[in-house]
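Lay summary

Proteins are chains of building blocks that fold into shapes. Our project writes down both the chain and a compact code for its shape. Here are two examples, one after the other.
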Amino acid sequence: MFDKFEWICARYEELSEAIVQPEIIADTAKYQSYLKERANLEPQAEAWHRYQALLNDLAQAQEMLADPDLAGMAREELDALRPAKEAMERALQILLLPRDPDDEHNVIIEVRGGAGGEESCLFAADLVRMYSRYAERCGFRVAPVYTQETELGGVKECVFSIVGSGAFARMKYESGVHRVQRIPVTEANGKRQTSTCTVAVLPEADEVDIDIDPRDLRIDTYRASGHGGQHINKTDSAVRITHLPTGTVAACQSERSQIQNKARAMQVLQSMLLEQKRTESDAAYAENRRLQVGTGDRSERIRTYNFHEGRVTDHRIGLTLYAIQDVMDGGLDPIIDALKTAEQSARLRSLT
């Protein structure tokens, strides 16, 4: 089962030797390629070395059983090492699982208000802040693309990107319907209300990922909305691009120039079309997505935020945390880590 690790370790050592050679360092493209490949192999190589060390400790403890003076100590050590061996073998199996090719990509996130009127838009704004704060905790950068706000400070729709290596690997579990239960600021009688928002998470497409015929596009310009003041947009710099064959629409108003907004909207459109293409044509890709985020359908409720009880419940894995304020402040790691573990377990079961 673990034969591949021998090859991984050999390749890791080969790359480690190569990246210190002057001729490799002088070739920037090759040097960067080798560094990236070595970084990808490092977790597997280190885990394999730890496993080999554990096997060596087990063998020594087994030999000690033959010595009456050391047998008691040996049994204690074996009792501790055997569960560690089982845990490490499971970790090695996980490391051998095929990686999602999009995991290292930046992400584009769309948050929209759903059922619940103004309250859903206010919660959509809360989700945008939550993801922005989580991105900051992870060392990622948030780049706004398009926002349609309400008079009370909510958002009907917000599209933004999170830039950083491994951003999609962390954020991909957020796609679906998010439900909130709380007393809205718009509710004068103090009555709790249930509202929903939808979140879509897309890996940012590379230019080579998908080819779009310019004749299939309708490009409209308009004046971006703003809050007034010296930075109010006085020109038609916002751009909306419609892909006519599919009806897919992407817009950008975050940049100062029409050219920049057009380029950014085009990048968002490419990501949306790439996701559609993969989901429709690649059964393996679609199954991988299903394991990560359920069906991926926006009608699927994935999480509830109950402010009255101070809890957040992720319905896909039955996880409940009574730490709603920390979650809303960007403390998503406990949820995302649990979802990642559940996905890995499901993928391991599917291979047996």
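And here is the second example, written the same way.
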Amino acid sequence: MTAPSRPLDQYVRDLALKPIAAKVQAGERLTFEDGLALYATKDLTGLGALANHVRLQKHGLKTYFVQNRRLSYTNICYTHCQFCAFQAKPGDPRAYVLSAEDIVKELSKPENAGVKELHMVAGHYPKLKIDYFENLFRSIKAAFPQLHLKVFTMVEMDYYAKVSGLTTSEFIDRCVAAGLESCPGGGAEIFDAGIREEICVGKKDANVWLRNAELCHEKGIPTNCTMLYGHIEKPEHKVDHLLRLRDLQDRSQAKGLTGFLAYIPLAYQNENNELSRKHVIHETTGVQDLREIAVARLMLDNIPHVKAYWVMIGAGLAQVGLHYGANDLDGTIIEEEIAHDAGATSPQALSKAELVRLIQEAGFEALERDNLYQTYDLETGAALS
């Protein structure tokens, strides 16, 4: 799919998309009703053409990836999310907590050579308090000063501040002083209160996530944002979720702040969890996955990057997603537990060479980045201006 050379409405078959195509062509912001129409249309290729138009306007053929490492410091969790297969309780044979020494040792393994970003999220375990995280971050930075620390969902941050007897603001400040540099976007799930009651009762107040993301932005900490789709949600819940993210980004950008760097649609994995035992929920289809990428690119006009997260939808479909609005394939990952515990069948890791091949084969320009989208020469690894 290439940049359209004629009016966008000529690329769509669904008459309901015609006025939306005109808005996209004019650079106008889409509404809640527009979002519902994007979810309702059967014209997936037309939807993709609109999203691809916006993607090419924003980024041209540039497509990003990062050499990163996913790592969870504990799987013990006292917050009950019905969709989660990762969580364990104390005494469970699967339960673990990693020390700072454990993590430094793990990061010293050869497969981590070249990693620029450490992405850490984990369970909610009350025995871990601020001193654990300060020691962890300082130990990692002492051993690997070049490693960017991207840690904590917004709900994790709230939980560990409370068990540490600190305000969230105080907790963030101490973590930043110890080495925290940015935050991932997980834990947002779906913001609708009724859906949260069904899928993540232990973190049912969406305002916690939104408030802490805004607090991070105000402190100059960039974050990502996500949405979990493909379970019991309806289109109206998803549009509401996207618009709340867009509104928050408006507020952050109005203050001259970076705010959200990227949005990642997360496909629900339907194995080994309570939600899939209670409801009949099928694995997401390629149509669903591509639609989520495209709708996000069209609705989230103020968030720079949209990822096609290969871990959850597979490398091949993520590659197609680059033609449906995505401009980032995430990264090498090296080891991912949360999605794979719930049934993800993607590989545990992709090499830098594999990511470059996927991007180039799809007709795009591969750019290695760090978490802040500084780019690097593919051959030498030198930072590009």
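What can we say about the second shape? The radius of gyration is 20 Å.
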